[in-house]
Amino acid sequence: MNSQSAEDMTNRYTQAEWRSIIDEAEKEHSSTTVRYKAPVIGSLEFAKCIDHTLLKLEVTPGQIDQLCDEAVQHNFKSVCVRLRWVDRAVANLRDSSVDVACVIGFHEGTYSMSEKVKEASAAVTAGATELDMVINWPLLKQQKYSQVYTDIAAVRNVAAHPIILKVILETSQLTQFDIVAACKIAEAANADFVKTSSGFNGQGASEENVRLMRSVIGPRMKVKASGGVKTVNECVAMMEAGAERIGTSNGVWIMKEAQTVLENVTHAVGGKNSKNN
């Protein structure tokens, strides 16, 4: 892993250059409504879009074990937990296809860069293969773009690929211009995803913000919708708006709904065929 100094990372662009990049992206992003194709409801591809999440502070070991069991049963992409539970989740999921994601700087995002780096390093050492870090959104709103970039780049520096880095924007606190800025900064810092929300601060994901984020990022990056996604219909709506990953604590319910949808479709098709015969 190549090490960069904070000064090198901070000095990637001047404030004027950042502003030019962001202004251009804000001007060029498409306002056209694009409807992306969601995976077939209830399919393995559909399940593999879900990060099964448990981020409350008052969590028991048994609840983490249940989270992992559910993720294996339903073939979710990952479980997303706080640092103290990464070891346990990794042990539970060692022989499965389910990844372990760990939140960083959660949920405020205002932790110091050194604290985020320490947390990220500990998560990777414990076996996490994905990190969901909260952007320092108060600094973003102050247009201190170099500092925001350094914060993300420092975490990327200690969690190089193939670790997946997702940057939580906390869109409920941001203007459209702020969201565009955050996307371009995360892209410059070599993050893999931009993510709507922590789920702990105001409104969660919206189709409008997912669509905006998807229109701004380059083809290398993806969007994760998180916060308030509780039903299969909401899940599909976020996917059709451009999300390729869904963070939710309601994954089991969503998959039960998906199974009902599949059964209804099968029943309808079967009834139609019977009439035709």
Strand content: 5-15%
Strand order of the largest sheet: 1-2-3-4-5-6-7-8
Helix count from the secondary structure assignment: 12
Q: Kindly state the mean pLDDT as a whole number?
A: 93
What kind of assembly state do the chains in view correspond to? single chain
User: How much helical structure, as a percent, in the residues?
Assistant: 40-55%
The computed structural class is alpha/beta
Tally of DSSP β-strands:
8
Low-pLDDT segments, ≥5 res: none
State the shape: globular
Distance between the termini: 65 Å
Major sheet attributes? 8 strands, parallel, barrel
Radius of gyration: 19 Å
Q: Could you state the order of secondary-structure elements as H and E? A: HHHEHEHEHEHHEHEHEHEH
Structure, explained:
- By secondary structure, the protein is of the alpha/beta class.
- The chain starts with 5 loop residues before the first helix and ends with a helix.
- Helix content is 49%, strand content 13%.
- Strands 1-2-3-4-5-6-7-8 form an 8-stranded parallel beta barrel, surrounded by 7 helices.
- Helix 4 runs parallel beside helix 5, helix 6 runs parallel beside helix 8 and helix 9 crosses helix 10.
- The chain is globular and about 60 Å long.
- The mean pLDDT is 93.
- It has 12 helices and 8 strands.
